[in-house]
Amino acid sequence: MPVTSATEAHDAPAKPLRADAQRNYDKLVAAAREVFAERGAEGSLDEIAKRAGVGPGTLYRHFPTRDDLIDALMRDWSARVVADSEAAVIDELPARETLEKWFDVFIGHITLHRGAAAKITAAMDDPSSPIHGKCQVLSSANDRVLDYVRQTGQLRPGVETRDVMRLVSGVANVADAAGMPADDVAPMLGIVIDGILQDSATS
Question: Does the predicted model carry a pTM greater than 0.90?
Fold first, then answer.
């Protein structure tokens, strides 16, 4: 019998919900998007249920944990991550411009909701997390962009895409926690870019 990983099992298509259950699911996701945007990923689950017009029991039937709720919000996010990584390389811009473009959207993706950056970073190395699969999507997208830069010959030898992902995620965590504007984040990303490109590409 084939073995299915926890991530594969979690990402497997769910059975269709009854019409009333689907309405509650959709209302909970919409309410969670509002609450998390306002108060961060630690926003009150009771407040989410209240805004959705359902009881806490209904929320927990659909989303047993907070990470399950975050995962639901991130499904469409996954498609955007893939599309943005493809857009970052399709124009075949110089290495620095490509990385500036990609890292900017990378930061945007993992700071979409206040507090989400820390959860995504923590889930990168935790296969048991419900959002680990989405982290793998982000990792693959990052690989796509850095592979392009590597093919240009401008990436320093020995640079691992996972290490770069952790560095940029660290910048995202700082920016998210401090509520930093994009103009203040750009210099930190510039330091990362300077560190991973060949000297000829950073001048």
Answer: no
